[in-house]
Specification:
Blueprint: H1 2-15, E1 20-23, E2 26-27, H2 32-44, E3 47-50, E4 52-53, E5 67-69, H3 79-92, E6 101-104, E7 119-123, H4 134-138, H5 143-163, E8 169-172, H6 175-185, E9 190-191, E10 209-213, H7 222-232, E11 240-245, H8 252-265, E12 271-275, H9 279-288, E13 291-294, H10 304-310, E14 315-318, H11 323-326, E15 333-336, H12 339-350, H13 353-370, H14 373-391
Parallel strand pairs: 1-3, 1-6, 2-4, 3-5, 6-7, 7-8, 8-9, 10-11, 10-13, 11-12, 13-14, 14-15
Helix pairs in contact: 1-14, 3-5, 7-12, 10-13
Length: about 400
């Protein structure tokens, strides 16, 4: 009898739109995570609960959606350190009404499971500053900062380990993220790759520049691309390097990193650095570049290789993290291990436009076949309905 009842509930959910509440702490960038939040919100006509939202810093389409800012508690510690913990407790104490399923996305919105169920967490990554990037971050802080940050990370981990076990279902955006979830949080997760709205990406030409699109942040390791290009330009006098992405001027470490990049670029007129450009300008850069470069530190997934391919451009990316799951050597781009290999692939592509065209065409076909939003929602919708049915 329960089986019959559940089948009937699932039938009703298939003909009635699920009421989804989406949680994502910071809509202040134009990144891959924000893109997923946007697509899910549009698909479900869902309300988004955020701690910080800056309409002029993220995708313009968010302005058409229902977004509610929730208040984070004041903590008498430096703002940068308080940011994540205060946001976590804002969700920890949040009590939602009128929904079927809560969809947590960015960390620490999963803490809302404290007072809200059922929850499906689409995890872009466990908190990197608390886990896999902890030592790397700490090595760049002063002693007092390291002590304070260590204290806050312990608080974060204490709450995280008591909240995450309650979550009904977890998606991981990549195999790497799935491994991190198991390693750090001892939970299983289903890998569900984000989609790419490839129909909105287009081709203009194989122009006169390599393109590095990315948030301007230390973990994006943009200096590796700059240093490789400085070696490359000794042998090639035609191609340039353009770097473009969002910059959070209010975050001291990001601003300092931006200044660091400016210093190593120096007076090199063949390297251009643009910040906070429009989405149209970003797509035009993709459409007009010769090839795309991407060298972050162990990226969770990374939409940039797929957006490059969607624009019929090959990608040269670091052989770490997410790019390993989306780039096939000599098919849609190249995976490199260091500056020397990046330089060598720049040289190889610069001498062979036919190879560039071949890799770019392969990449576009690869994205269309494997990374559509239709494919994403076929799985996502099914799991959401199953969780909603089980909770009735």
């Amino acid at each position: 009898m329960p089986t019959v009842v559940n089948h009937f509930k699932l039938f009703l959910l298939n003909i009635i739109m699920i009421k989804l509440a989406i949680l994502h702490p910071f809509l202040i960038y134009k990144g891959g995570a924000e893109r997923v939040v946007l697509q899910v919100a549009k698909h479900y006509d869902a309300k988004i609960y955020v701690v910080d939202y800056k309409a002029d810093a993220t995708f313009e389409e968010f302005e058409k959606l229902d977004i509610e800012k929730i208040k984070a508690p004041f903590l008498p510690i430096p703002k940068r350190m308080a940011y994540g913990i205060a946001s976590g407790f804002a969700y920890f104490n949040l009590k939602l009404k009128d929904y079927d399923v809560v969809n947590a996305q960015g960390v620490p919105s999963e803490w809302a499971r404290n007072k809200n169920k059922p929850m499906v967490w689409y995890c872009h990554t466990p908190n990197r500053e608390a886990y896999d990037l902890y030592e790397w971050r700490q090595s760049r802080r002063s002693f007092p900062q390291r002590v304070a940050f260590s204290f806050l990370v312990n608080i974060f981990k204490f709450v995280e380990k008591r909240t995450v076990p309650k979550i009904e279902y977890i998606f991981a955006n990549s195999k790497l993220t799935k491994q991190r979830i198991k390693k750090y949080l001892n939970r299983e997760a289903e890998v569900l790759y984000p989609g790419v709205d490839y129909k909105k990406f287009y081709f203009k030409e194989y122009g006169d520049f390599f393109f590095y699109p990315s948030r301007i942040a230390p973990e994006k390791r943009i200096e590796l691309a700059i240093e490789a290009f400085k070696d490359f330009e000794k042998y090639n006098k035609e191609l340039k390097l353009i770097i473009a992405g969002s910059l959070a001027y209010e975050r001291k470490e990001h601003l300092e990193y931006f200044k660091f990049l400016k210093r190593i670029i120096g007076n090199d007129e063949r390297i251009k650095l643009f910040t906070n450009i429009s989405e149209k300008e970003m797509k035009d850069f993709y459409a007009s570049c010769y090839s795309v470069v991407f060298t972050p530190v162990n990226e969770d997934f990374g939409l940039i290789p797929l957006e490059a391919n969607a624009s019929y451009k090959p990608i040269i990316a670091i052989n770490e993290g997410g790019p390993r799951e989306t780039i096939k050597n000599n098919f849609n781009g190249f995976l490199i291990n260091n500056k020397k290999e990046l330089f060598e692939k720049m040289i190889e592509l610069s001498k062979n436009e036919q190879l560039v065209k071949k890799l770019g065409k392969n990449g576009r076909n690869f994205v269309e076949k494997n990374f559509s939003w239709e494919r994403f929602f076929k799985v996502f919708d099914k799991r959401i309905k199953e969780i909603a049915t089980a909770s009735q």
